[in-house]
Amino acid sequence: MMRYLRYAFLAILGIVLVSISLANRQIVELKLMPDALAELLGLNFSTSLPLFIVVLGGVVAGLIIGFLWEWLREHKHRRDASTKTGEVRKLEREVKKLKKKQNEGKDDVLALLDEAS
Questions:
Q1: Can you tell me the distance from the alpha carbon of 28 to that of 14, in angstroms, rounded to the nearest whole number?
Q2: Domain limits of the chain?
Q3: Alpha helices in the chain (DSSP H)
Q4: What pLDDT digit, counting tens, does each position of 32-55 carry?
Q5: Are 115 and 99 in contact (CB under 8 A)?
Q6: Would you say the C-alpha torsion 31, 33, 37, 39 has a positive or negative sign?
Q7: 106 CB contacts (<8 Å, ≥6 apart)?
Q8: Which residue of 7, 21, 44, 65 is 20 to 30 Å from 13, comparing CA positions?
Protein backbone atom coordinates (compact mmCIF):
# COMPACT_ATOMS: atom_id res chain seq x y z
CA MET A 1 0.00 0.00 0.00
CA MET A 2 2.76 2.47 0.95
CA ARG A 3 4.63 1.60 -2.23
CA TYR A 4 1.63 2.66 -4.33
CA LEU A 5 1.27 5.89 -2.37
CA ARG A 6 4.96 6.63 -2.98
CA TYR A 7 4.58 5.95 -6.71
CA ALA A 8 1.46 8.15 -6.86
CA PHE A 9 3.27 10.97 -5.04
CA LEU A 10 6.27 10.72 -7.37
CA ALA A 11 3.99 10.69 -10.43
CA ILE A 12 2.11 13.79 -9.24
CA LEU A 13 5.41 15.51 -8.42
CA GLY A 14 6.74 14.67 -11.88
CA ILE A 15 3.61 16.04 -13.57
CA VAL A 16 3.81 19.26 -11.54
CA LEU A 17 7.52 19.74 -12.32
CA VAL A 18 6.98 19.12 -16.04
CA SER A 19 4.06 21.56 -16.16
CA ILE A 20 6.06 24.24 -14.29
CA SER A 21 8.95 23.68 -16.67
CA LEU A 22 6.76 24.00 -19.74
CA ALA A 23 5.13 27.17 -18.39
CA ASN A 24 8.48 28.86 -17.63
CA ARG A 25 10.60 28.33 -20.72
CA GLN A 26 11.50 32.00 -21.26
CA ILE A 27 15.21 32.80 -21.29
CA VAL A 28 16.66 34.83 -18.41
CA GLU A 29 20.16 36.23 -18.01
CA LEU A 30 22.14 35.32 -14.90
CA LYS A 31 25.02 37.54 -13.88
CA LEU A 32 27.78 36.71 -11.44
CA MET A 33 27.93 40.28 -10.05
CA PRO A 34 26.10 43.58 -10.45
CA ASP A 35 27.22 45.57 -13.52
CA ALA A 36 29.09 48.28 -11.56
CA LEU A 37 31.06 45.77 -9.49
CA ALA A 38 31.77 43.58 -12.53
CA GLU A 39 33.23 46.57 -14.40
CA LEU A 40 35.33 47.55 -11.39
CA LEU A 41 36.80 44.06 -10.93
CA GLY A 42 36.84 43.10 -14.60
CA LEU A 43 34.79 39.96 -14.00
CA ASN A 44 31.80 40.25 -16.27
CA PHE A 45 30.46 36.68 -16.32
CA SER A 46 26.87 36.12 -17.40
CA THR A 47 24.87 33.32 -18.99
CA SER A 48 21.39 32.85 -20.41
CA LEU A 49 19.24 29.95 -19.23
CA PRO A 50 15.56 29.01 -19.25
CA LEU A 51 13.77 30.21 -16.13
CA PHE A 52 12.71 26.71 -15.02
CA ILE A 53 16.36 25.58 -14.96
CA VAL A 54 17.23 28.53 -12.73
CA VAL A 55 14.36 27.78 -10.34
CA LEU A 56 14.86 24.01 -10.19
CA GLY A 57 18.64 24.47 -9.98
CA GLY A 58 18.14 26.78 -6.99
CA VAL A 59 15.97 24.17 -5.27
CA VAL A 60 18.53 21.42 -5.91
CA ALA A 61 21.40 23.64 -4.73
CA GLY A 62 19.45 24.47 -1.56
CA LEU A 63 18.81 20.79 -0.85
CA ILE A 64 22.46 19.90 -1.36
CA ILE A 65 23.63 22.75 0.89
CA GLY A 66 21.08 21.75 3.55
CA PHE A 67 22.09 18.09 3.51
CA LEU A 68 25.77 18.99 3.67
CA TRP A 69 25.19 21.44 6.52
CA GLU A 70 23.21 18.84 8.50
CA TRP A 71 25.83 16.14 7.86
CA LEU A 72 28.57 18.45 9.18
CA ARG A 73 26.44 19.48 12.17
CA GLU A 74 25.82 15.86 13.18
CA HIS A 75 29.49 14.87 12.94
CA LYS A 76 30.04 15.08 16.70
CA HIS A 77 27.05 12.82 17.35
CA ARG A 78 28.32 10.20 14.91
CA ARG A 79 31.80 10.40 16.47
CA ASP A 80 30.35 9.94 19.99
CA ALA A 81 28.26 6.96 18.85
CA SER A 82 31.31 5.37 17.25
CA THR A 83 33.35 5.87 20.42
CA LYS A 84 30.62 4.40 22.60
CA THR A 85 30.24 1.39 20.28
CA GLY A 86 33.96 0.73 20.60
CA GLU A 87 33.75 0.98 24.38
CA VAL A 88 30.81 -1.45 24.48
CA ARG A 89 32.72 -4.00 22.37
CA LYS A 90 35.77 -3.66 24.61
CA LEU A 91 33.66 -4.15 27.75
CA GLU A 92 31.87 -7.17 26.25
CA ARG A 93 35.23 -8.81 25.50
CA GLU A 94 36.38 -8.08 29.05
CA VAL A 95 33.21 -9.56 30.56
CA LYS A 96 33.61 -12.69 28.42
CA LYS A 97 37.24 -13.01 29.53
CA LEU A 98 36.30 -12.59 33.21
CA LYS A 99 33.50 -15.17 32.95
CA LYS A 100 35.88 -17.63 31.32
CA LYS A 101 38.43 -17.00 34.09
CA GLN A 102 35.73 -17.39 36.76
CA ASN A 103 34.52 -20.69 35.30
CA GLU A 104 37.93 -22.36 35.13
CA GLY A 105 37.87 -25.70 36.88
CA LYS A 106 34.06 -25.83 37.11
CA ASP A 107 31.81 -28.41 35.53
CA ASP A 108 31.32 -27.73 31.80
CA VAL A 109 27.53 -27.67 32.07
CA LEU A 110 27.58 -25.17 34.95
CA ALA A 111 30.11 -23.03 33.10
CA LEU A 112 27.86 -22.94 30.02
CA LEU A 113 24.86 -22.00 32.14
CA ASP A 114 26.89 -19.29 33.85
CA GLU A 115 28.04 -17.85 30.50
CA ALA A 116 24.48 -17.85 29.13
CA SER A 117 23.20 -15.57 31.89
A1: 23
A2: 1-63, 83-117
A3: 2-23, 35-41, 51-73, 75-102, 108-116
A4: 888 888 888 888 888 999 999 998
A5: yes
A6: negative
A7: 114
A8: 65
